[in-house]
Amino acid sequence: METYTDFASVYDTFMDDTPYEEWAEYIDALLKKYTMVQKAEHEDVLAAEQRIVVDLGCGTGTLTELLADAGYDMIGIDNSQEMLNIAFAKREKSGKGILYLLQDMREFELYGAVGAVVSVCDSLNYLLKEEDVYETFRLVNNYLYPGGVFIFDFNTVYKYEMVIGDATIAENREDCSFIWQNYYHPQEEVNEYDLTVFVKMDKPGEDGRSFRRFIETHYQRGYRLKTMRDLVEKAGMHFITAIDADTHGEVREESERIYVIAREHGKGK
To answer: What is the pLDDT of residues 225-236, one digit of tens each?
Structure first.
């Protein structure tokens, strides 16, 4: 799962058309719709815990910052130090009290319960084995406050197989460009994509070149809704609903990305 090393430096540049603001507004609405406020003797303390939201696979912290703007106490978790370094810089500029943790989502640790966990922008697709997804879900359920909500998205098998698999995507900017070559492996339902990135250097190198080239290979596995629902329930959570991430309507066979909303189950018994 070691990815986003050199690519981290240009990640935000190539993701500048991503509708993070729309995502944050929609996630905020889902959190408000599905969060259960529990009654307890020390309600003021518990309410404070419930305001904590974990952004699992936070990357460079763009969505984390937006959810902090919406009033949540944010924790961002990612396993790429390079991506977190950029998130640190954003936090320093904004002055927000976001806690960032360098951790693998399959074995993340928190200091206590949280009100909600969100994981979007394909983060879970980097888990290539169902047992890794299950272990991540089990930890989410473990750290969620009773009745807490888990919202995540995933790219479907349909998207990799029928839309982007075996396609080549290229983009040229003034200071950087990339070539993204996809190779879909149907038996494993895994999409391999090789990124070749050219970044303009402040000064030409010793060889006279003005651009630095680097290559990264990423792997993402497509999942089916039934598989994700089974893993959610196996991990102990209650499956609430699934939503087509593009239309915000019902999930279809042609859905490319799906939101799942689940709830912690068992601690309140």
So the answer is: 999 999 999 999
